[in-house]
Amino acid sequence: NMEKRLIEQVKFIVEVDKAKEIMRRTYLTKSERFENDAEHSWHLALMAPLLREHIKEDINIEKVINMVIIHDLVEIDAGDTFCYDKEGNLTKREREIKAANRIFNILPKDQGKIIYDLWNEFEEMKTIESRYAACLDRIQPILNNISTKGRAWKENGTTKSMVLKRMNVVKETSKELWELVLEIVNEGVKIGALKDE
Fold first, then answer.
1. What is the pLDDT of residues 10-29, one digit of tens each?
2. DSSP 2
């Protein structure tokens, strides 16, 4: 007879498999299809230790990895809200809190609270860990975008100013990563993938 705790953990593990079905608006670099939330989160978890040296402050890298692995699980219920969708972003927080309450409460209470708090910390972007995690979350899609010659940017009519506004957290967090962003954005303009306005 499996203990209740293990049953709850397994239920959560099976539930979050659904993240593999949540499609984003970013193309894979070598494919015709969009990436899904699980692939996106894996990519951020890989980037976290690799790019850590570009953050001057002390940082708990394990916390960052945990944060990026769970940051989009709420989209299982709330769906992926495109970052430049003004209307969708008005209700995003409300939809995601409702989702967080359902999904994270499948876990034993102590673990559910840890994950909820991590998710909330990521959303608030107040700690160095959450700001670094947000930088990774912003940079990964533009790396994929430039690698696909700006395909998603072109399809969505994305402008240079839209991208730079979204990259504000990078500008405030890391000089080197901000320089990388500027290089990518300028390249996007040069190849005609981003409108320069």
1. 999 999 999 999 999 999 99
2. -
